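User:
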Amino acid sequence: MRPERAIPASNSSAEAISVMNERKLDALDFVLNVLREHEESLDTLIEKLDLMIEAFSTIQHRLESLCEKVEQNV
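Assistant: Predicted structure:
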C-alpha cells in the first residue's frame, strides 16, 4: 500500500482530485486484500469440515455395524 499523502492546500483542484482518487484506490485495494485473505481462510475451514464429515461418516458406519452385531447376539 502506498504511503498516505495529504491533500495539498495550494495545488489545483485537479491534483486534489487525483490524491483523493489515489486514496480511494488504496482503500479498494485494502478491501480486496482483506476479502482475499478471508476467502483463503474459508477455503481452509471448508477443507477441515470436509475431513470431519468424512470422519463422522466413518464413525457412524462403524456404530451401525456394531449395533447390528449386538442386535444379532441378543
